From TrEMBL:
Residue ranges occupied by any Metalloprotease TldD/E C-terminal domain in the UniProt entry: 219-441
PANTHER family given in the database record: CONSERVED PROTEIN (PTHR43666:SF1), TLDD PROTEIN (PTHR43666)
Classification via SUPFAM superfamilies: Putative modulator of DNA gyrase, PmbA/TldD (SSF111283)
Organism: Pseudomonas xantholysinigenes
Protein name: TldD/PmbA family protein
A single GO molecular function term of this UniProt record: metallopeptidase activity
Length: 443
């Protein structure tokens, strides 16, 4: 599939190169997927289908002005070329009407990048047989998505990038008869029936605990363990401008104090943008090569995500960040806590599987608020006592991953974005769980 799509992209590029006029520059972004989707209810297939789609994003530049258009592609190469040429003609007419873009900053290097991550995906029959064997008696509700995703980029300066990665993402919940639920996920590039079965069994064990009477806690500070899925919600908040050069330059980043040196996190905390080996392409949507970046090293703010526009506006050096300057492959270094010892080391406190509906309650202080949900348990002396009624937490990152952080787990979870808005996402995070001495619950 990859070679077919790459050839179609190359043909469109040849056609475009032949059509551009003197003084014009262009960039051409490409996106395609061939995805299998299966929706489950009560552990049975309720809906199944295939999505095969492709599109290109054409940007035309002349004399400091730029305009862009997206074109949906089909299976007719001739028709696709005509659509591309029509878009080029429209952009030509539009450009003279536009103002000069003061922050236009094209990468004029002829870089080349080629990545094929083609681990074989499981046969759908194998996945369905596993679900039948491990969960036939459960109220399992979820979506399985799998297949190759392609991204391409080319420019009139001779740059060319191609990226194809196979991946699967199974996102599901197990519902108890009392209406409570355990949320779980298994995703990656290399499928393991054993790992999937183990993840399902862990969710089944947690489901049994949800049958116990709910425990209501008073507001206060509690010792807590945050599972990787809960950490993913916190990390997701940091991606809202936390590492963005533009947000940091304009004082709108939640990590302003960290990057200015006025505050720091625990020395155990090192966040990276880990592009290499991830599902994300090694080039940005703006057409710059990406590299791995150490964003936070041993609790201190280091590199930031600099897009081409921010580089022009704030006189910085671009480092391949997308236009929105949000991490696409965020990785938090592991700690020393083995998964097998989590409950023992927690002792008495909260085991938090997921957090929900997060937002900033005080952005400059990196203070977040949100709800516990989906299998949060009260633990005493290393033993789960029962589920905890939904509570709101309100705490600062400088506490959770700073003064209150006791340890991070040795094992990390690869969490792929479940977003399918328009197309399947290539975003991911690679995160450990966190043991904290105190998490503030407010109501």
């Amino acid at each position: 599939m990859g070679s077919l799509y790459q050839q179609r992209f190359a043909n469109l590029l040849d056609s475009l190169n032949a059509a551009v006029q003197a003084g014009e520059q262009f960039t051409l972004g490409y996106s395609a997927e061939h995805s299998q989707f299966v929706r489950f209810n009560h552990a049975k297939v309720r809906q199944a289908g295939l999505v095969s789609q492709a599109s290109v994003h054409l940007r035309l530049v002349r004399e400091g002005r730029q305009a862009e258009q997206q074109i949906t592609l089909g299976d007719d190469a001739e028709l696709d070329q005509r659509r591309l040429h029509d878009a080029l003609a429209q952009l030509r007419q539009t450009l003279p009407l536009l103002a000069v873009d003061p922050y236009l900053n094209l990468d004029d290097s002829a870089w080349h990048s080629h990545s094929l991550l083609e681990q074989p995906l499981p046969e759908l029959d194998e996945v369905l047989a596993l679900v039948e064997r491990e969960a036939a008696d459960l109220d399992l509700v979820g979506i399985y998505a799998a297949g190759p995703i392609c991204r391409g980029f080319a420019s009139s300066f001779g740059a060319f990038g191609w990226h194809q990665a196979n991946s699967f993402n199974f996102d599901w919940s197990l519902f108890h008869a009392n209406g409570q639920a355990v949320k779980a996920n298994y995703a990656g590039q290399a499928w393991s029936a054993e790992a999937f079965a183990a993840r399902l069994r862990q969710a089944r064990e947690q489901l049994a605990h949800l049958g116990r009477p709910a425990i209501t806690l008073e507001p206060g500070s509690y010792r807590a363990y945050l599972a990787p899925a809960a950490m993913d919600e916190i990390a997701g908040m940091l991606c809202w401008g936390g590492f963005s050069a533009q947000a940091l330059a304009t004082g709108n980043s939640p990590l302003q104090r960290l990057y200015s040196g006025d505050a720091q996190l625990s020395p155990q905390v090192s966040f990276s943008e880990q592009i290499s080996g991830s599902l994300s392409p090694a080039f940005s949507d703006e057409g710059s090569p990406r590299r791995d970046l150490l964003l936070i090293g041993e609790g201190r703010g280091l590199e930031r995500l600099v897009s081409a526009r921010s580089a022009a506006e704030f006189k910085l050096v671009a480092n391949g960040a997308d236009s929105h300057e949000s991490p696409c492959a965020l990785s938090l270094a592991p700690g020393n806590l083995p998964n097998a010892q989590i409950l023992e080391r927690l002792g008495t406190g909260l085991y938090i599987s997921n957090l929900w509906y997060l937002n900033y309650s005080d952005l400059p202080a990196a203070r977040m608020t949100g709800l516990t949900r989906f299998a949060t348990f009260w633990v005493e002396n290393g033993q789960i006592q029962g589920p905890v009624s939904t509570m709101r937490f309100d705490d600062s990152l400088y506490n959770l991953l700073g003064s209150q952080l006791e340890d991070l787990t040795q094992e990390r979870e690869m969490i792929l974005s479940t977003s399918t808005y328009g197309q399947r996402s290539t975003g991911s995070s690679h995160l450990p769980g966190a043991l904290v001495k105190g998490l503030t619950l407010t109501l």
